[in-house]
Amino acid sequence: MREVAVLGIGQTQVDEHWGKSLKILAGEAALAALQDAGVDRADGIFVGNMMSGSANHQQHLGAYLSDWIGLPQSESVHIEAACGSGAAAFRCALMAVASGQMNIALAVGVEKMTDSPGPEITAELATAADADWEAGQGLSFVALNALIMRRYMWEFGWKHEHFAPFSINAHQNAIHNPFARFQEPLTEQGYQKAPMIADPINLMDASPMGDGAAAVLLVPVERLKRLDQSPLVKVIASSAATDTISIQNRRDATWLTAAEKSARDAYSQAGISPKEISLFELHDAFTIMAALSLEAAGFSERGQAPRLAMNGEIKPSGKIPISTRGGLKARGHPVGATGIYQIVEVVQQLRGLAGETQVPGARYGMAQNIGGSGSNIFVHILEAC
Amino acid sequence: MREVAVLGIGQTQVDEHWGKSLKILAGEAALAALQDAGVDRADGIFVGNMMSGSANHQQHLGAYLSDWIGLPQSESVHIEAACGSGAAAFRCALMAVASGQMNIALAVGVEKMTDSPGPEITAELATAADADWEAGQGLSFVALNALIMRRYMWEFGWKHEHFAPFSINAHQNAIHNPFARFQEPLTEQGYQKAPMIADPINLMDASPMGDGAAAVLLVPVERLKRLDQSPLVKVIASSAATDTISIQNRRDATWLTAAEKSARDAYSQAGISPKEISLFELHDAFTIMAALSLEAAGFSERGQAPRLAMNGEIKPSGKIPISTRGGLKARGHPVGATGIYQIVEVVQQLRGLAGETQVPGARYGMAQNIGGSGSNIFVHILEAC
Predict the structure, then answer these.
(1) Per residue in A34-43, pLDDT tens?
(2) How far is the alpha carbon of A97 from chain B, nearest alpha carbon, in Å?
(3) Chain B partners of A81 at a C-beta cutoff of 8 Å?
(4) How many Å lie between the alpha carbon of A356 and the closest alpha carbon of chain B?
(5) How far is CA A374 from CA A103, A143, A183, A254, A257, in A?
(6) What is the pTM of this model?
(7) Active-site residue numbers of B?
(8) Per-residue pLDDT tens for B15-28?
């Protein structure tokens, strides 16, 4: 298996892009990544997206995108793993290059959510859950996470206000990211006074919907060495794990088994421990998910992640910086694109180009993307060499 | 890159499965493949499906299926390339094993079309075409193929009746396949008197909708050797190519550029010529697609595929047997599952277990799966060793 490196990155701002269609967004990110890499072709394109079939009346995003960006000679497919679609596409692209099937692979994540009006998108998002036993009973995705958060608060004795630091950190970091949806700070008061969505989750616990696209270009490491790029950003671990799709079937709703397994596998591949991770772009679709991910990935004692956040350890200057470019909460969460945004942001950090929120001496960056309520989790560790 | 072999196959009958849900169908095929292989786990599951998000209100088929079949420890994703989703999933599974990332990968194709009533499914199928320039103008998938067929007939001087042998051969072969949707013969008269759908395509030129699932289990060849399986069925070529998504943007609507390129790449990987192919499971969603595929893949002079069919060369006893188990026309075309059915049928032939329609001495079997109107084409060549 060949070593693989990231040669180029690209992204659009996350926003309500009323004036841009699905393909325009995806194309902008894809072309930006090609330009960043200084190449004009790709052997294969892997498009991560969750809902284009229903929200945009367009499936077949592989052929659709390769045609649009002028690369009809490239093979291309669409990869879906609900909100984990981006990282799933990245992992398939990685395997294509690692296996020797491709020398240049482009992973693109895109989601155009504003094409689907409010109530419809809620139903479409719920297709990530079990149609029979969750969505069919009227459980929306926010409601599922609210059940988990309520249980967590009860078990470990936390109050709602204790989750504020997760959202405040995300917003604080997003101020300095021109691609973020919300480039404005959030105060303690702003967090606590936000309208309730599904008790105990209020608007400031939840990531916003939005439109956006991000792209990453992958090549074998030997190619990068020839191009003399510095720093060389290598993918040193790629793992994935699943759990039951519905939370009712889990022994414990407050423990992300798939996050634990995927992180453990990734550390083992990379040959490092959690302590060596410089930053962790985790899947903070809801504050409770940030807490559970930190615990399952080995950065916090069980039930103690809110303490870690309150102590400031999740800031760029802390022990385990998270959401360094705004995270899902403030950069935004265009679902099928999110996993690629996370990789793009890790690369920015490893290149030392994260500006005001640069993590000093960043060497190992980890990205974790979740599909469903913890049912499909993808982890990647990248290294600046 | 490691050599990869098929260790197990499984399928359900293609039918209107009113009593079985999406997951029951997919689960039956997946478990049958595991049983055939004699293994009880998989490192990864790749699910090919096109329309479950809209037709079945269920996305996230990776986690959904791994949970249902009792393998929540397996990582899993959903792969989509319109009607080419099955082969696209197979190709991703293949790369995962070839790269060394996985030792056992399961590729499952599934589609449950009857959950979506008639007019809706037509719109859902049209999401494989360009939403802006084809579907948005009211062009259904049959209509797109009718435009191509009309042009082909005009250019090469064929009449509608000359396409009859494609459908008659498919039905004749399906009689002996217990998994086929239509296990009954079609006569010349039956073909010609079928009701018109989109002139010149009548009901007997078109493959039927249906529900079904098929699965294939892949392992590295060295593992198979240890198990002493005979014959050993190796995947000796895997390729894919795209073309413009809309036919209006092609220089020539009667030539499948992506079929030519993907077949050429596959022959090159396998180190063989078209003459050595024992059988060709092609994508006969419409009779015109069977003709175009035979030509682009090098089995017929341009514009002369109907002649090949009329001369009986596409029968199991002919020079290039096609649709040996019924093809899309008579086995059925549950879109996202079709590419896996084709692989399953090639394996049946290479194992010498195709009964009445066994191709004598079958050594090299080729499967070709098309997404959209020729815009995304996947080719695999398997060898009995």
Answers:
(1) 999 999 999 9
(2) 9
(3) 60, 62-63, 76-78
(4) 36
(5) 33, 14, 28, 10, 8
(6) 0.96
(7) 83, 333
(8) 999 999 999 999 99
